[in-house]
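Protocol step 4 of 6: structure prediction from sequence.
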Amino acid sequence: MNGNYDRRMGARGAALVAAVVSAWCFGFSGSAAKFVGAAGLTPLQAVWVRMAGAAVLLAVVLAVVRPGALRIPRGRGPFFAAYALIAVAGVQALFFLAITRLPVGVVLLLEYSSPVLVVVWVRSVRRIRLPRAAYAGAATVVAGLCVVVEVWRGLALDGVGLALGLVAAACCAGYFLMSDGYASDVHPLGLIAWGLAGAALVLTPLAAPWDLPWSAFGGAVTVSGHTFPAVAAALVLIGVATVLAYGTGVYAVRHLSAAIGATFASLEVVTGSLIAWFLLGEHLGVPQIAGGAVVLAGALLAQSATSGVSRTTEDSAAQRAARPGESTALSRSFASRASAPAAEGDA
């Protein structure tokens, strides 16, 4: 028994490390994208290179190591398409567009208000009663965002960039909800590979990759006094900020829970801001730093309030394997909570 306990604790510890590594890898996205953009690519061309390059790399690795992971189960096509459109293309394209108008750290703060949107969706659409702490967390995040955008100065930040960041947050919320919504017959890495490929396909007419300045990858780019080969920035964007980031993130979520994984994903706000500060010289002001701390606190509160419910996804794994056609574990766990008498403190 002690041996099993030690193995479980070891796996949990490895998953926590993977979650932190994933956050750091994702944190390179904004800075690497700005270097790629400085080479002459438009934001949509940069995200297309990221999606297409990562899809090819991950598909090749899976084809060699685990070809069965690339199989799309019968009837799962619409889910794969929605995942590619919302969870991958929507999040990445809007993020890349937003960082052309706002500092990377601010865009990350906006994007990681998504836990609040998850709480709102669960309560208003699924009609699930949640603890008061979930709503307190949501209100805290809204207050923090008001500080970040300096509402007392009439929105000091770029309005278009702010709108793009908020829509990216909505897509990010969809990513978390759908990542907890696939059945056991879907391999997570296969879902990511097809999601990346589908996102590249969707963005092809907009990015016009046939007009890409491919020769730009043979030179070097300088941003804020730092010079890197353009191809190195692209490889970091594809290999580190996408394939490695998604891979370690999936491992973390599968061995922890969706709520804990999403909470650790919020670390990207910190890591991305630190990397952008060092590489791009994007110093955040006092309101952005203070508001960011409030946003993170609210997001953690909102996530922890629902972690007990989301945690049941681990216990439902066997049921999901036996009945893959049923609704998701998250939906069933929320439904069971809703049908039970309200606990003290629920709103």
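Step 5 (inspection) to follow. Strands lie at 220-223, 226-229.
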